[in-house]
User: What shape does this take?
Amino acid sequence: MEKVYIEKNTVQETLVIPLYARKLCSERFPELFRDEKAMELMERLDYDFSRIEKDSQSLMQRFGALEVAMRQNDLAIEVRDYLKAHPKAAVVNLGCGLDQTGENCDNGQCQIYNVDLADVITLRGQLLPEKPRVHNIAGNLKNTAWFSEIDGSQGAVFFAAGVFYYFRKHEVKALVHKMSRHFPGSRLVFDIAGKRAVAMMIKTWVKQAGIEDVGAFFHVNSVEKDVIPWMKGAKMTSRGYMLGYNDLKDPSVSRFFRLLARLGDRVMRMQIVRIDF
Assistant: This one.
């Protein structure tokens, strides 16, 4: 099978980082997380992984992979919870990249939408083509024209993994307000982190990969002060995304990593936010 080329210093290259993290976590923590598709996709990419593979031996890179995996697990839990009450809902992966969380939550009735920039969707189409009930949509999340392509008549659950850090705070707020008006009764789930954590995240995963011109703008130090005031009347909850959904008491996870997980949730303010409109 012909490999798909990934050009350096492009938006497409940023997709490689979480993909590699899911593959790394699948290898190191298989009882907690297993993403067979990530491992398969790695083999189909024409990309020099040598730098990422070298860095992956470091303690913090391994912990970073665990962070990525737990975040995807957390979001999947919230999506499946929504589908229990709305089995035919739209499941919308915002800034999908090469992630298949929506497909992994498929109950056989829902409609799955993967939304990202045009060049990303082009790449996704080569590797993960559309199927019945699975739709790939090219669109800029900041320009909500893509709303019209989502059938939310049976409910809608939106989720974003590691996406809003590349937005400014006012842009996230505007998107949330528009979503609440256009899709009443829907749910939005996304991850947040404090300012210090976002800076470390960018340094660890993006700069070490040699990717340039990627800025991190959105951070939340206090959900109560920075997010809850946005949406009066909406139900909003947050949980730590390392330990809020899983105690990580698996033999493959060291005590040191569990300590880092506690620090991540409490000190770095790494959380999953759920808003029910």
Strands lie at 4-5, 45-46, 90-94, 111-116, 134-138, 156-160, 187-192, 235-240, 271-276. The mean pLDDT is 89. The longest strand covers residues 111-116.
